[in-house]
Specification:
mainly alpha; rod-shaped
């Protein structure tokens, strides 16, 4: 299967966007002072673990999608 140039750029941009957004989210989650992510003793709550899991899955998916876009662009460069 061959990806078009716009589709490849979109996938690459989506992968980068995913990393930027979720890194920011994890930083904010780690610094949470509202009591949602950490209890009074400083231990992580279920909220923390669920959202950390979402972030890790999003990192993986963003990486895979971005890699597909990069591979598509490299394949187009070789055929040009």
């Amino acid at each position: 299967m061959k990806l078009s140039r716009p589709a490849s750029w979109f996938l690459l941009a989506f992968g980068v966007w995913s990393w930027v957004i979720w890194i920011t989210f994890v930083k904010n989650l780690w610094k949470d002072g509202s009591g949602l992510a950490f209890d009074d003793a400083g231990n992580p709550t279920a909220y923390f673990w669920v959202h950390l899991t979402l972030a890790v899955v999003s990192f993986v998916l963003g990486t895979v999608i971005g890699a597909l876009g990069l591979r598509g662009l490299r394949a187009l460069r070789r055929t040009s």
